[in-house]
Amino acid sequence: MGKVAQLVMGPAGSGKSTYCRTMLTHSQSIKRSFHLVNLDPAAENFEYEPTVDIRELITLDDVMEELQYGPNGGLIYCMEFLIENLDWFEEELQDYEDDYLVIDCPGQIELYTHFTIMRQIVEMLQRLNYRVCGVYILDSQFIEDTSKFFAGVMSAMSAMLQLEIPHINVMSKMDLVGTTKKQSELDRFFDVDTSLLLEDANKETRSKFHDLNRALVRLIDEYNMVNLLPLNINDEDSVTLILDHIDRAVQYGEDLEPKEPRDEEFEEEGGYGEMD
Ligand SMILES: Nc1nc2c(ncn2[C@@H]2O[C@H](COP(=O)(O)OP(=O)(O)OP(=O)(O)O)[C@@H](O)[C@H]2O)c(=O)[nH]1
């Protein structure tokens, strides 16, 4: 079925590690063998032991102590050190026929905006014949108001544009909003009618921002960035749905299984964005 890697990205605290853990638990219940790869040199404990762990190469604590770096500069130093030692990473990724990696990345947003570190990691994985899917995690607090939603979607979009790989967006922590928002209010963010989004944004801002709102909504529309998949870690169906989208994005198992008619339906719904 080939080699697949989910590159799990997103702002600090958005729920990347929780997502990875949920995917690993799910993989056991569906009898797939996923490997956790930790690329966060500041990570603490994992419920599942990572198969590959950057902390065996370098840790943020050591860099901060020995080089007197602060946490953000130290993190970038660690990631650049990883890039200089990609042969270490390659060696750690032992070559099995059907590897499936779930890669937990650090939460420093600058890694996804202007540094080329993540791109170099993707290129290395692609050289090793991995089909890589970007999974960008946004916290459900981003749907508290439209301006936060714009900010979150823009950060997801910059990761998507930088990496040029199949990409999905996941809205995490849905168990926390279920009780405070009505389903109709939530639907607006998952199956977005962009004219409603524009209406909301205009209500929340002064008229001098309305042209900007319109431009942002158009951008979101054009890049198909509104397909946010809700993740409720207590609801197995939401995990199944996300994995289903990733499978299709990387065509997992397509060489074995006939293409299903619902693929067409899915593409009509908008697919994963433009970046395949
Ligand atoms: N209720 C709830 N809490 C969550 C969920 N996902 C994450 N959290 C909590 O949010 C906090 C951050 O979650 P992590 O999974 O560590 O987030 P992260 O993106 O890996 O964080 P960094 O590695 O620091 O960038 C933790 O306290 C989690 O317990 C979720 O789906 N539901």
Automatic annotation (TrEMBL):
<keyword id="KW-0547">Nucleotide-binding</keyword>
<dbReference type="InterPro" id="IPR004130">
    <property type="entry name" value="Gpn"/>
</dbReference>
<feature type="compositionally biased region" description="Acidic residues">
    <location>
        <begin position="263"/>
        <end position="276"/>
    </location>
</feature>
<dbReference type="InterPro" id="IPR027417">
    <property type="entry name" value="P-loop_NTPase"/>
</dbReference>
<comment type="subunit">
    <text>Binds to RNA polymerase II (RNAPII).</text>
</comment>
<comment type="similarity">
    <text>Belongs to the GPN-loop GTPase family.</text>
</comment>
<dbReference type="InterPro" id="IPR030228">
    <property type="entry name" value="Gpn3"/>
</dbReference>
<dbReference type="Pfam" id="PF03029">
    <property type="entry name" value="ATP_bind_1"/>
</dbReference>
<comment type="function">
    <text>Small GTPase required for proper nuclear import of RNA polymerase II and III (RNAPII and RNAPIII). May act at an RNAP assembly step prior to nuclear import.</text>
</comment>
<keyword id="KW-0342">GTP-binding</keyword>
<feature type="region of interest" description="Disordered">
    <location>
        <begin position="253"/>
        <end position="276"/>
    </location>
</feature>
<keyword id="KW-0378">Hydrolase</keyword>
<protein>
    <recommendedName>
        <fullName>GPN-loop GTPase 3</fullName>
    </recommendedName>
</protein>
